[in-house]
Amino acid sequence: MDILEELSASLEAGDTAAVTRLTTEAVAQGLAPEIITGHGLVAGMNVVGQKFKAHEIFLPDVLLAARAMHAAMEILKPHLVGKQLPTAGKVVIGTVQGDLHDIGKNLVSIMLRGAGFEVIDLGKDVAPERFVDEAEKTGADAIGMSALLTTTMPMMKEVVALAKKRGLYGKTRILVGGAPLTAEYAEEIGADAYCFDGTSAVDRMREFAGG
Ligand code: B1M
User: Fold this and answer.
1) Model's pTM, two decimal places?
2) Is the CB of 59 under 6 A from ligand 1?
3) SS3 call for 196
4) Which CATH number fits domain 90-209: 3.40.50.2300, 3.30.980.10, 3.40.50.280, 3.90.320.10?
């Protein structure tokens, strides 16, 4: 097994210590950070996403892999400065106003980043204006919203209304997710996609990006 295969397998196993060691070693060996990311980390994260979707692994495994990924990215960040990684598209993401649940949203952000998307994470309790302002400012391809409370789901409709008012609707895709949501609700409020999980968010973003 070469170092990238080992890195991928360690990420899949959520072994932060091994991922940290192998990422450091790969950098010391002179491997390009893009290669370490793409062939090591992202490869591992893709497997995690597939296994999670197939119910072969569970949330704690994904969170461990996410933590390991985060540790590796911290090591690689200084080596990526000044280098433009090819991006599959840009998405502004956040948990809607009044809602403080961010575990799912964070997971989705990591999956999207792992799949090569640039993610602008606005955090939680995000006002409709911020979603739309940031999408406009950054020229994002999509807005991704998370809601975990039945009482905060209607905030998504407000974002859609504001995107319509500001002329973004139809150009900037709107993706929604969160435990209480359904595809029917997404359609009812005029969102472009309901995402059951991070993998479906990646799939839908790929569709919108045309590949
Ligand atoms: Co809260 N909470 N909580 N909570 N909490 C729920 C949501 C609840 C269902 C629990 C229950 O009663 N059974 C309930 C909501 C009931 C309802 O609305 N009908 C509830 C409640 C009532 C509350 C409070 C009101 C409790 C109180 O204070 N009385 C309060 C509200 C605070 C607020 O937001 N204003 C509250 C607070 C909290 C904590 C702070 C303690 C904590 C959140 C910590 C945090 O996020 N940093 C918390 C937690 C942890 C939960 C439960 C237990 C777990 C949520 C979670 O993280 N799931 C939850 C019960 C449950 O869901 N079983 C509950 C794991 C996560 C990976 O899944 O977020 O669904 P999920 O994300 C998935 C998909 O939904 C999808 O992909 C993710 C990965 O697969 N997805 C997206 C999510 N966002 C997406 C965005 C996308 C795409 C896909 O964009 C494109």
Assistant:
1) 0.81
2) yes
3) coil
4) 3.40.50.280
* Cα(191)–Cα(50) distance, integer angstroms: 25
- Structure confidence by residue, pLDDT tens digits, 58-105: 989 988 998 998 899 889 877 865 555 667 899 999 999 999 998 788
CATH number assigned to the domain with residue range 3-79, chosen from the 4 options 1.10.1240.10, 3.40.50.1820, 3.40.190.10, 1.10.3720.10? 1.10.1240.10
Report whether residue 177 contacts ligand 1, using a CB cutoff of 6 Å.
Answer: yes
The proportion of the chain whose per-residue pLDDT surpasses 70, expressed as a percent, equals: 96
A 10 A CB-CB count for 46 gives 18
Tell me the C-alpha distance between 92 and 119, whole Å: 6
Best residue among 101, 151, 185, 199 to mutate for probing ligand 1's pocket (most ligand atoms within 8 Å of CB) is 101
Give 75 Cα–ligand 1 centroid separation in angstroms: 31
Distance CA 170, CA 156 (A): 16
